[in-house]
Design brief:
Elements lengths: L1 E6 L9 H8 L2 E6 L15 E4 L15 H14 L4 E4 L1 H9 L3 E17 L1 H5 L9 E14 L4 E6 L7 E4 L3 E4 L9 H5 L3 H11 L3 H32 L2
Parallel strand pairs: 1-2, 1-3, 3-4, 4-9
Antiparallel strand pairs: 5-6, 5-7, 7-8, 8-9
Length: about 240
C-alpha cells in the first residue's frame, strides 16, 4: 500500500505508525501543506489517504488558503473514489467538514492524558477491536466535531467532547485524540507556539514536562493501542 499523508506541522507526522508501516512493507508520501507544498494533481498511484493534526482550525481558510482545496481532496478521495482514510485530530475534523459536518470551538479544551469511552457502535465495530471500553490517551485540542456528516457513526466519546472517534460508511475512520504518540512527541509539539500556549493555559509553567511525564508513564500502553488500531484499520479497509 502507498499512502498519501497530509501534514500541517512538520513535527506532527505519523509517529509510531511509521514503525508499523515500515515493518509491513508499506510506503507513504507526505505533503507539508503549512510549508507551501502542493497537493498532488491526481490521486492515481495512492491506495489510501491519511490526514494528520495541526495547530490551525478547520475554518481558518483566510489564514490558510490551502484548507479549502484540502477539504475538496478529502471529499473526492473518500466520497467519490472510495479511498481508505485515516484522520487524526485536525484530520478528524477535516473529514467531518469535507463530508458536510460541522466543527467549532470546544467549550472545554482537552489537554492531557485523559479517558475516552467507546460507544456501543465503537465496541461492536472492528476499528477498536481489542481495546477496553475505556482507555487513556493523549488529548491536545481546542476544537471539536459538533455535527457529524450524514452516514457517519460515533465510535468513542468523552464528557467534554461528544465525537471522539468517527466512522463514515465502511472506508473512513478518524479520531480526535492521539494514538501515534512516541517518547519525543510532547517535546516536539511543545515547540509549536499554538500548542505551547495551550499547554501554559492548561498546566501553567512546566506544563510540557508534566505532560511528557504523564505520557511516559503510559507509553507502553499507548504503543500497544497504536499497533492495535493500525492493525484494525488495515483489516477494515482490506474489506472494501
Amino acid at each position: 500500500m502507498h499512502i498519501l499523508v497530509l501534514q500541517h506541522a512538520r513535527a506532527e507526522h505519523p509517529g509510531k505508525f511509521r514503525d508499523f508501516l515500515r515493518e509491513d512493507g508499506h510506503s507513504w508520501e507526505a505533503v507539508e501543506l503549512d510549508e507551501g507544498e502542493h497537493l498532488p494533481p491526481s490521486l492515481d498511484g495512492f491506495d489510501a489517504l491519511w490526514v494528520l493534526g495541526g495547530p490551525m482550525d478547520v475554518w481558518e481558510e483566510d489564514l490558510h488558503p490551502w484548507l479549502r482545496p484540502e477539504k475538496e481532496l478529502i471529499r473526492s478521495a473518500v466520497a467519490e473514489k472510495g479511498m481508505p482514510f485515516l484522520g487524526l485530530c485536525l484530520g478528524h475534523q477535516l473529514l467531518a467538514e469535507a463530508l458536510g459536518g460541522r466543527c467549532g470551538k470546544a467549550k472545554v479544551p482537552e489537554i492531557g492524558v485523559l479517558d475516552v469511552h467507546l460507544t456501543e457502535e465503537g465496541e461492536a465495530g472492528i476499528f477498536f477491536d481489542g481495546l477496553p471500553e475505556t482507555f487513556r490517551c493523549l488529548q491536545w485540542h481546542g476544537a471539536e466535531v459538533q455535527e457529524m456528516p450524514d452516514g457517519a457513526k460515533c465510535l468513542a466519546t468523552t464528557e467534554a467532547c461528544k465525537v471522539q472517534a468517527m466512522q463514515w460508511l465502511t472506508r473512513a475512520f478518524s479520531v480526535q485524540f492521539h494514538v501515534e504518540v512516541e517518547s519525543d512527541t510532547v517535546a516536539n509539539w511543545a515547540e509549536i507556539p499554538e500548542y505551547a500556549d495551550a499547554l501554559d493555559k492548561a498546566f501553567g509553567e512546566g506544563g510540557a514536562k508534566r505532560l511528557a511525564d504523564e505520557c511516559a508513564q503510559e507509553m507502553r500502553k499507548f504503543n500497544e493501542m497504536a499497533e492495535r488500531v493500525y492493525i484494525n484499520w488495515m483489516q477494515a479497509v482490506s474489506r472494501i
